[in-house]
Write a structure and sequence with these properties.
Length: about 475
């Protein structure tokens, strides 16, 4: 019997990436040069937000999606933070609300006016203080309105109830900086990766660690839940410093189901999972390519499909929500690629080639929409509910009528789990102490210069006064 290669049929076998034409890109944007491992970009069906390079604080641009082309240098910015902005995320249920976090230890909620910004925005609708060091990550809960998670360099995850504008829970099980957070479909589980090389699955309301993996052969960087399959996928580095992905059973993290080496490059691998098509996209920071795979329920679990190639390296990638895609073009995913060297944001559409122009039911199943399934009080009381689904047929969009109302509150102590977060500051690191020392030395030198200048001026005035007294007129 002759050998035949195994053929695997897949409707996504020929998916290809299509780059938008230059006039449909966003040009002239001073993309941040910060080396923090985030995307610095967030997108929804109405707006594109990009963290920008700025002096004396942190800022980001918010541009309506239809306003493509060259962006003016004096375009209005959101610029209320005192430190660099490290992460931004749009509210999944209210499309003009965006959360940002910064090196100034704050998390802020901004309300973007209809049609975009007309002038610089410096006042946030809500300022959240609870972390004692810079805040590196923010994530919205996938099914509950006004629940926000933030992870700081104080090794803590805070859960914020924006209805009252305060943290309602602190997760304090990490021993180093938290690198990534990911929710399962209904938001009942939270997966985190940490600089201590551990992967954790948590119950967020109690803060209890359900599963923990100490990754000896696979140093994890990023994690993503694979929809409702009860599996996790992590990207990281092998013991030989090659880039690697690993698939895990969320109920048993003792050993990965599979480990697969990708290449020997050094850039961080960002994973993106599309639960509707069961496709996984891998994009490396500093790479120009995007690999994509199909996830199966049986071995080998991971099937390579194809690769999108581009010569321009990406700093980060924003992802359009499903209800913002062009279903008439059979678009199943859309990236917004940050090209720092050109100051360019480039949309890349992943398209399933189909001849028929009718709606393709098989590639557009019911998908999570813009309506929350729970209120904050319901979720905090222990209720879990799957997201409310919507159809994308004929471009149907259910407009959310929700409006964000910022709570009125005074600045006071923030007590969570019996600890005042604003008073209980952890010891400073050596680098922080050195920075403080040099800042104080600079301030001492500046004050000395001011004193010496004043001394010189006093001597000049004394000399003028003496000359005036000795003049012939006074005699």
């Amino acid at each position: 019997m002759s050998w035949r290669p195994q053929y695997r049929s897949s409707k996504f076998r020929n998916v290809y990436g299509k780059v938008a034409s230059r006039e449909h890109c966003f040009d002239g944007i001073p993309i941040t040069k910060n080396v923090h491992d985030n995307h610095f970009c967030a997108v929804n069906a109405r707006f594109l937000a990009i963290v920008t390079e700025s002096a004396g604080g942190g800022s980001f641009l918010v541009i309506p999606l239809e306003q493509t082309g060259r962006i003016e240098p004096n375009y209005p910015k959101v610029c209320g933070h005192q430190g660099n902005v490290l992460d931004i995320k749009w509210n999944p249920f209210i499309e003009n609300i965006i959360a940002s976090c910064s090196e100034d230890t704050s998390v802020r909620i901004w309300e973007i006016p209809e049609g975009g910004l007309k002038r610089n925005m410096t006042e946030a609708v809500l300022e959240l203080y609870g972390h004692s060091r810079r805040v590196g990550l923010v994530e919205w809960h996938p099914t509950t309105n006004n629940i926000l998670f933030s992870a700081g360099y104080d090794y803590k995850v805070l859960i914020w109830n924006l209805d009252i504008g305060e943290p309602v829970k602190m997760i304090d099980c990490h021993t180093d900086v938290i690198l990534c957070m990911s929710f399962n479909t209904d938001g009942s589980l939270l997966a985190t990766t940490c600089k201590d090389k551990k992967l954790r699955v948590l119950e967020p309301r109690s803060g209890r660690v359900l599963q923990e993996a100490s990754c000896k052969n696979h140093r994890v960087n990023r994690v993503v839940f694979l929809g409702s399959t009860k599996r996790l996928l992590t990207t990281g580095v092998s013991r030989w410093n090659t880039r690697q992905i690993a698939l895990w059973d969320q109920e048993d993290l003792s050993m990965p189901l599979i480990e697969e080496e990708i290449d020997g490059l050094s850039g961080l691998l960002f994973p993106f999972y599309d639960a509707d098509t069961h496709m996984l996209y891998l994009a490396g920071k500093g790479d120009g390519n995007i690999r994509y795979y199909e996830i199966g329920s049986e071995k080998p679990y991971l099937s390579y499909l194809m690769e999108f190639r581009s010569p321009a390296p990406q700093k980060g990638l924003g992802v359009m929500p499903k209800h913002g895609l062009d279903v008439s073009a059979c678009e199943v995913f859309r990236f917004y690629k940050l090209i720092t060297l050109k100051g360019l944001i480039e949309p890349i559409s992943m398209i399933v080639p189909r001849r028929s122009e009718t709606y393709q039911e098989d590639i557009y199943p019911m998908t999570p929409g813009t309506e929350p399934a729970l209120t904050p009080d319901e979720w905090l009381s222990g209720i879990n509910r799957d997201p409310i689904l919507m159809s994308l047929k004929e471009g149907y969009k259910r407009n959310s009528k929700m409006v964000f109302k910022a709570p009125a509150r005074e600045k006071k102590s923030v007590v969570v789990n019996g600890i005042d977060l604003l008073e209980n500051v952890p010891p400073r690191t050596e680098n922080e102490l050195l920075r403080m020392f040099f800042r104080q030395q600079d301030e001492i030198r500046r004050l000395k210069d001011e004193v010496s200048q004043k001394d010189i001026r006093i001597r000049q005035l004394q000399l003028e006064l003496k000359n005036l007294r000795n003049s012939p007129k006074n005699n």
